[in-house]
């Protein structure tokens, strides 16, 4: 029981830096975060589909590159690892901006009267705690939020202002 409480405290303490991360992303890249949020609000189903397909496609490519690089020589390993790491970095960036849009939208819907930074902070706390729910949060809510976020970011890249 003691380990369980330690894990809960650690997770709750990790939510604070996550909220700060989303606040910094929204402050440094306000246009990209706002565009991702607009796409997320306007087309959640399409965003989910685009995010799921792109995540599976690029994730599979990165996985194959890592798998081949594991059994290769040092030069080939380096050559294969670079594109795999670039793909993972691009997916991480898309996920970061997508989740920023998601927590901004969540905070805007739940706390419309708060200032933007409080909405983002509370949206992060609510999404983080909701994703901690065993099974449903882990395997349904977080992947849904991630795929919708990735898809909204990608659609926002190719959409005109």
Order of helices and strands: HHHHHH
Number of DSSP strand runs = 0
- Give the end-to-end Cα distance, rounded to a whole number of Å: 52 Å
**Mean pLDDT score, rounded?**
94
Low-confidence stretches: none
Helix content: over 70%
What is the number of helices?
Answer: 6
What Rg is obtained from the alpha carbons, in whole angstroms?
A: 18 Å
Classification by helices and strands:
mainly alpha
What profile does the largest beta sheet have? none
Q: How much strand?
A: under 5%
Dominant shape: globular
Task: Walk me through what this model shows.
- With 161 residues, this protein is an all-alpha fold.
- It is 88% helix and 0% strand.
- It has six helices and no strands.
- The protein has helices at 2-28, 30-42, 44-70, 74-110, 116-131, 136-157.
- Helix 2 crosses helix 4 (74-110), helix 3 runs antiparallel to helix 4 (74-110) and helix 3 crosses helix 6 (136-157).
- The protein is globular, with a radius of gyration of 18 Å.
């Amino acid at each position: 029981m003691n380990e369980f409480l330690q894990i809960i405290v650690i997770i709750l303490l990790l939510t604070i830096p996550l909220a700060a991360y989303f606040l910094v992303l929204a402050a440094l890249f306000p246009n990209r975060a706002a565009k991702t949020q607009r796409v997320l609000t306007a087309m959640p189903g399409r965003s989910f589909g685009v995010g799921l397909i792109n995540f599976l496609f690029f994730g599979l490519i990165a996985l194959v590159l890592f798998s081949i690089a594991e059994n290769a020589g040092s030069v080939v390993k380096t050559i294969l690892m670079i594109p795999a790491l670039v793909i993972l970095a691009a997916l991480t960036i898309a996920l970061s901006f997508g989740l920023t849009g998601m927590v901004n939208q969540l905070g805007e819907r739940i706390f419309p009267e708060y200032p933007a930074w409080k909405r983002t902070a509370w949206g992060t706390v609510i999404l983080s705690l909701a994703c901690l729910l065993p099974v449903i949060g882990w395997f349904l809510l977080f992947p849904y939020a991630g795929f919708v976020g990735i898809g909204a970011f990608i659609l926002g890249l190719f959409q005109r202002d």
